[in-house]
Specification:
The complex is a heterodimer. Chain A is of the alpha/beta class. In chain A, the strands form three sheets. A seven-stranded parallel beta sheet of chain A has the order 5-9-4-1-2-3-10, with helices on both faces. Chain A has a five-stranded parallel beta sheet with strand order 13-12-14-15-16. Chain A is globular. By secondary structure, chain B is of the alpha/beta class. Chain B folds into two domains: about 220 residues, Rossmann fold, CATH 3.40.50; about 30 residues. Chain B has a nine-stranded mixed beta sheet with strand order 11-10-9-12-8-1-6-7-13, with helices on both faces. A two-stranded antiparallel ribbon of chain B has the order 2-5. Chain B has a two-stranded antiparallel sheet with strand order 3-4. In chain B, a hairpin with a 2-residue loop joins β9 and β10. Chain B is globular and about 75 Å long. The chains are: A alpha/beta, B alpha/beta. At the A-B interface, α5, β5, β7, β8 and β11 of A face α3, α4, β9, β10 and β11 of B. β16 of chain A pairs parallel with β15 of chain B, so a sheet runs across the interface.
Chain lengths: ~325, ~270
């Protein structure tokens, strides 16, 4: 399709209660810079149920315009309802660029939507720019397990689409909400939604492991030596710092902790402010999932462990001595 | 149930090294393997067949002629039959173009194997890491989809799929025919038996070449049919290790922890 405007759209995914997922607001940050370079508006697109809070925040974080589709059929994400709604909006308004947060739902929606309108999509980007020469979005993303970065363009098809990894960009500064809000009345019939959510199984003990949204992750690897330390040693530190517990593949494969905690190539890709790697050697598959962290701390007995080569701060020592002591020290500092 | 599993041969990215001088990938000597996520998709199909032996599992891969090796591996593990889609004109395809070719291959294979009730794919391939081809095949074929699947079972009129979400697991019913992509479940996929391995070595695999479907529009595949183009690739800058705190003299783990806590606090990290 042809673009009708120079506008840049940020899809702001909502939670079931209508609040925004963090990555949607984060994308308004690079979105502002890119929209200005493209010479169009920065538009937040919100699909969900009772999303007033998200619409408000989109304006506070810098959207010039917010387009809203609301209805009970959007309360829980379904591929069919969301793809139909987003396609309708894009065909009506014709933005030149569409960005979507690379959450599980975002990576379900992105390729289904972009292939419906037969345009290109670049998945899981970690760096974004507008090329000054041709005015195209330069989407940069890791491949080959983080060993290679590729910059991809979509020259002849519109809109240019990309999904962007959570935690890569910081939310923009709050400002005065000047956004124009457009409500679109678009509904999807129940028979057009071909999947049905039967049950939600929360993590055991009601624990939610939102690794991708976490500011602090305390991760354990083979050096944990067994399952107990995750609860007795790592969790107190994670709780104290307002973070969550992660794990390397070695720990998950040993059956010490659930796969939902796994960071790395066959697990989650994370970008917290602080990543504390305990007893993790630093295999490339693990590093691929956490090298985007702002600050990496490694605690390992083996002085030659490769994790130290990417750590900002390393401690050569037994994690079972260091981590509990670190927890106590931080408690003192916070007191 | 009639299940098609889409698989890809990929370089084992855990064994790729970077040329320290040229900053390029060293691909020589890197083994080609079955994409691990596709192995999980095959295992999900095999578990359906465990419960219902009438299930047929067909695998398809697109790639160079040597990609037939992963078809063999899949037959050794659990598949009944395999097809290789290979053609020079298919080279350079991005995900949208690849899914266009594969969606036509699905229809072609259905002429022989009958309609598929379900198409299973790995969540993503470990070389490209895009997670796009599965949903894009579903779109070309107008099938409902579930991504990030962990396991699937047959239910009346469709499949019940456990799906990984950020905060737990979702159980989703999906009408067949459908497409599901799979991520890593809590169990390891089965290994081939000797007997199946021997049978796989004798298996013949039909090839779908450049002209397998003359109705395909060249404007939709190959380098020229791909909306996205790689403009540049580079190795990420290597991060330098920072401060390393080691035991000196009589220091204990607690002393090291105290030092670490201090530097983290001094640098406003905690």
């Amino acid at each position: 399709m042809e673009a009708k405007t120079k506008d840049l759209w940020v899809f702001i995914e909502t939670n079931e209660d209508g609040s925004p997922k963090k990555v949607g607001l984060e994308l308004l940050n690079p979105g502002r810079m890119m929209a200005d370079k493209q010479g169009g508006k920065l538009v937040g697109v919100v699909i969900g149920d009772n999303v007033a809070a998200t619409v408000e925040q989109a304006g506070i974080y810098g959207a010039d315009q917010v387009i809203v589709v609301e209805g009970p059929e959007y309360k829980q994400y379904t591929t069919d309802a969301y793809v139909n709604a987003l396609t309708y909006l894009v065909e009506k308004y014709g933005p030149t660029t569409v960005m979507i947060g690379a959450t599980n739902n975002g990576r379900d929606l992105g390729p289904r939507f972009s292939s419906r309108i037969k345009t290109g999509l670049t998945a899981d980007c970690t760096s974004l720019d507008i090329d000054d020469e041709d005015g195209l979005v330069a989407w940069t993303r890791p491949a080959f397990g983080g060993n290679l970065m590729a910059t991809i363009k979509c020259p002849d098809h519109r809109p240019q689409c990309g999904t962007v990894r959570p935690g890569v960009f910081k939310k923009p500064a709050e400002g005065e909400n000047k956004a124009e809000v457009i409500k679109e009345d678009f509904h999807v019939a129940p028979e057009d939604i071909r999947t049905k959510l039967v049950e939600v199984i929360k993590e055991a003990a009601g624990e939610i492991v939102d690794l991708e949204g976490a500011d602090v992750i305390v991760s354990g690897g083979r050096g944990m030596g067994g399952p107990e330390g995750f609860d007795t040693t790592l969790k107190p530190l994670a709780d104290l710092l307002g973070g969550v517990v992660g794990a390397s593949r070695a720990a998950v494969d040993s059956g010490w902790i659930a796969h939902s905690h796994q960071v790395g190539q066959t697990g989650k890709t994370v970008g917290p402010k602080l990543y504390i790697a305990c007893g993790i050697s630093g295999a490339i598959q693990h590093v691929a999932g956490m090298s985007g962290s702002d600050c990496i701390v490694a605690i390992n007995k083996d002085e030659d462990a490769s994790i130290f080569s990417i750590a900002d701060y390393g401690v050569v020592g037994d994690l079972y001595e260091v981590v509990p002591a670190l927890t106590e020290e931080i408690k003192k500092l916070k007191a | 149930m009639n299940i098609l599993v889409c698989v890809k041969q990929v370089p084992d990215t855990t064994q790729i090294k970077i040329d320290p001088v040229k900053h390029t990938l060293i691909r020589e000597g890197v083994p080609a393997i079955l994409n691990p996520f596709d192995g999980y998709a095959l295992e999900a199909a095999a578990r359906i067949k465990d419960k219902n032996p009438d299930t047929k599992i067909v695998v398809v891969t697109m790639g160079p002629p040597q990609a037939v090796a992963v078809l063999k591996e899949c037959v050794a593990i659990a598949a009944d039959k395999g097809y290789l889609v290979t053609g020079r004109t298919f080279g350079g395809s991005d995900t949208l173009a690849t899914s266009y070719i594969l969606s036509h291959a699905v229809k072609k294979i259905e002429e022989t194997e009958g309609k598929f009730d379900a198409i299973f794919c790995g969540k993503q391939a470990i070389d490209g890491d895009t997670a796009q081809v599965g949903p894009e095949i579903a779109e070309w074929l107008d099938l409902p989809q579930v991504t990030y699947g962990l396991e699937a079972e047959e239910v009346e009129g469709g499949l019940r799929v456990k799906k990984e979400a950020e905060d737990g697991t979702l159980v989703i019913d999906i009408k067949t025919p459908c497409l599901c992509t799979f991520t890593k479940p809590a169990w390891d996929p089965r290994y081939p038996t000797i007997k199946r391995k021997l049978a796989a070595n004798r298996a013949k695999f039909e090839q779908l070449g450049d002209d397998f479907d003359p109705s395909m529009d060249p404007a939709h595949y190959g380098l020229n049919g791909s909306p996205t183009h790689v403009k540049k690739s580079f190795t990420p800058p290597q991060k330098e290790g920072g401060l390393k705190i080691k035991k000196e003299g009589e220091e204990t783990g607690a002393d090291l922890a105290a030092k670490l806590a201090k530097v983290l606090a001094d640098n406003n990290i905690i």
